[in-house]
Model the fold of this input.
Amino acid sequence: MPLVVTNSLFWEYKGRTESAWYLGAGDGVTVEMQNAYMDWSEAHGCDTTIICLNNEELMSLFSDEYMRTLDLRKYDMFMSYVQRLKARVAKIVFAFFDFPGSNNPKYPCLRYMDRHEPFIEAACKTLNPDARAYLLAIESNRCIEYPAHKWWKRDDVENGIKIIKKYAGLIPVGSHEQWNPRTMGFCGGDFACLETRNHPAAGDSISVADMVADVQFSQSQLPPGFPTWVAEKNLNAWNKHSIEQAQAIAELPGVVGVSGPIS
Done:
């Protein structure tokens, strides 16, 4: 199965490591930063980015409550970034939420269970022309943790994926998870978007063989040949060891995507 996506989740910016999740319109993000990320991705052979739409601490497209008043400045910044990515022929994957939420949220959203389907419907209507895929959430396996578990159950994650599919047309849908098949069933969807079970900050301490075995175990709990995208593995994504991890994972049958760079 050919490699379909190489995403650049972690990248180097002005001597520090940054995450690409919230470059759409997250707090503190600038157009210069967005452009630097696109340049970095191209220079390192990465063709895909994941953009998260909501994070309770640092990302919202609303000026007041979730699903109340659209913040037009943030929306324009977000859509401009999407169009600039598209102009560079980047593959764009949108994630709707981020778990487990915040104990003291600046932008509360996870608790408003009755607003999620209207949000997903409106977002898909706008983003379908630009979306290569959708993710329900970042680390949706953490729905069982505080504070998200006050509102979400595992069934809600599975149902959320079904809701997205209702509005996404033929666009593939899944969810990003640090999934442990020993303790939790698969969330469903069209592909598995995985974070390896190590914290990415510990990625350099995981041997290539052990990381490959981690991915293979997860694959063994999925249907044969099920599309698997290992989207998160090592915070130091561009060092030699991380590249060797990515290269080895990319060779596995069923793997359609890796967190790069891969060369």
